[in-house]
Amino acid sequence: MKRKIQMGMIGGGPGSMIGAVHRIAARLDGKIDLACGCFSTDPAKSRLTAAELSLPEDRCYEDYLQMLEAEKGRIDCVAIVTPNHQHFPMAMQALNHGLHVICDKPMTLTVDEARQLRGRVRETGLVFCLTHNYTGYPMVKQARAMVRQGRLGEIRKVVVEYPQGWLASAIESSNKQASWRTDPKRAGVSCCMGDIGSHAENLAEYVTGLKIRELCADLHSFVPGRTLDDDGSVLLRFDNGARGVLMASQISVGEENALRIRVYGTQGALEWCQENPETLQYRRNDQPLTVYRRGWAGTLPEAERFCRIPAGHPEGFLEAFANIYSSFADAAAGHADADFPSVDDGLRGMAFIEAVVKSAADDQTKWLPVAEL
């Protein structure tokens, strides 16, 4: 593809944090142009966002189906940045209109929807990218490459956690993001595990290359009146026999976005934390602690290709998100070696969420398999 990819956006209007993140990430590497959008179910809010983005009035739409029809042949892809319950129908319609899709997670509301969506992606041959954006960090890719090189030996233990504190009180009535995330009709069967636990699950499988085979979960809602979970812990069994622990919480007062993973093998161990993303620690019993820094000595090619600026000039959340978009753009342009979360990862995530909720609700049989996909 000799030109920039033309993108339409669904969602991301006033009050949407993630919409702005997507737009920044999409344009950071100069591969994608935002050409049109249906930014809100409120036409006035959609027009306001379009005006702020300097989009032509005739390329701002009141209905996403209207946009897909009107933009046929003019755009190449659609970014879906809406609440969870809209992901499946919007993604299916975009694929049916011949468009590549980049979609927020979780991918759908149910495993059945996720299977249908994967089937449609395979039928069309179009590119589908899920924004598990933490896999875009260079030092996460460094960790994955070191595991693949055998630097850890056989993986035995995985500990992954994602504590936040922003939902420690009932802010649903005054906070748009809290409102839909705690609503079963819009969020699905889970709040905390669906929102951030799925990130932890994806990070664990991405770094280790292993699959969660079965799990034992405990979920709880601490805030009175809240119907979906705001805290949870999960024991994991991986397909190679490794064990794991996954914790996700949105009522951990004082925590910001402390996503952290530790992987222990027979020969070595790795540790990475999202709030200090430039650093990866490598440990052995017979050597001093080794600290790798992004873009510096010891950075592997798998990580180096995703670094933009020299070491010591920090890269963070937006750049990691942009790495996902850049890889998506490469795939849409026909490059085979693009590295981003796919529709298969989305289906894995939905199977994980479903198994967690079922396990937590079952007081008798706690260990449940993650559905074969």
What does this structure look like?
- The chain has a domain at about 135-345 and about 350-360: Dihydrodipicolinate Reductase, domain 2 (2-Layer Sandwich).
- Helices cover about 35% and strands about 20% of the residues.
- The chain has twelve helices and 14 strands.
- A nine-stranded mixed beta sheet has the order 13-12-11-10-6-9-8-7-14.
- The longest helix is centred in the C-terminal third of the chain and has 19 residues, at about 345-360.
- About 50% of the residues are buried.
- The model has no long low-confidence stretch (mean pLDDT about 95).
Topology record:
Blueprint: E1 5-11, H1 17-27, E2 32-38, H2 43-52, H3 64-70, E3 77-81, H4 87-96, E4 100-103, H5 111-124, E5 128-130, H6 138-148, E6 155-163, H7 176-181, H8 184-187, H9 192-208, E7 212-220, E8 231-238, E9 243-249, E10 260-265, E11 269-273, E12 279-283, E13 290-293, H10 301-304, H11 317-332, H12 343-361, E14 368-369
Key structural traits:
nine-stranded mixed sheet, 373 residues, globular, five-stranded parallel sheet, alpha/beta, single chain, Dihydrodipicolinate Reductase, domain 2, 12 helices, 22% strand
What would a concise description of this structure say?
The chain has helices spanning 17-27, 43-52, 64-70, 87-96, 111-124, 138-148, 176-181, 184-187, 192-208, 301-304, 317-332, 343-361, and strands at 5-11, 32-38, 77-81, 100-103, 128-130, 155-163, 212-220, 231-238, 243-249, 260-265, 269-273, 279-283, 290-293, 368-369. The protein is of the alpha/beta class. It has a 9-stranded mixed beta sheet. Strands 2-1-3-4-5 form a 5-stranded parallel beta sheet, sandwiched between helices.
